[in-house]
């Protein structure tokens, strides 16, 4: 297999290659943990079993280039590319995105790791002052739990626009928990995740994030529970590993979220 591969995409954790017979193979970088690879396989399989539009993983492989997962090939651009090609369709695409995310949250995922523990670990190992960490952990302990399927990295670059409609990819950050923090994370990824940072693009990203949240809230207002509290702990946890994109704007957003729930500020 490894002698007949052509690169389709490359990211922080893996490269994706086209393989024979309408399949792709995702080969993970050496630094990626076995746990993360197993989690992606399990979560994508669970999502497929739940009837969601995903690429159902075929098998895990050990290749000379590293550990890998074999997937069926899904043809189509990312939602981000589709929005750039057809900007007047952006509002409709964001409505589709919100509806898709709601369907993900309809699925139970009792076997996946707990988002609460993921956030706890990220806060404790992040750069915030210990006083901020302890206050945030106390807040986290008081938040409601859940067993919903959470994608953990749901944004317009992880949605492929196939003939059958949007398809969710890259399930390596999946967990179980309540829907609210997964919605908050998507809002943050859309505004402050990796990507262009010019003035016009930043305005477009902020608009898209607002549209996504508003559409989701209209569809399922019951998934917006303890929003201010979840926004604060999710934003603080993201400090551990986020790329330095729109750093000043994100820190202002974080301090605003912390202040709203009475926690100490990062920037003072």
UniProtKB/TrEMBL annotation:
For this protein, what is any one GO molecular function term?
transferase activity
| Family annotation (Gene3D superfamilies) | 3.90.1200.10
What's the protein called, per UniProt? Aminoglycoside phosphotransferase
Q: Which residues form the Aminoglycoside phosphotransferase domain?
A: 6-208
Instruction: Keywords in alphabetical order, please.
Output: Transferase
Which InterPro entries does this one have?
Aminoglycoside_PTrfase, Kinase-like_dom_sf
Pfam families attached to this UniProt entry: APH
Name its species: Sphingobium chungbukense
Q: Which SUPFAM superfamilies match?
A: Protein kinase-like (PK-like)
Which residues, by range, are in coiled-coil regions?
Answer: none
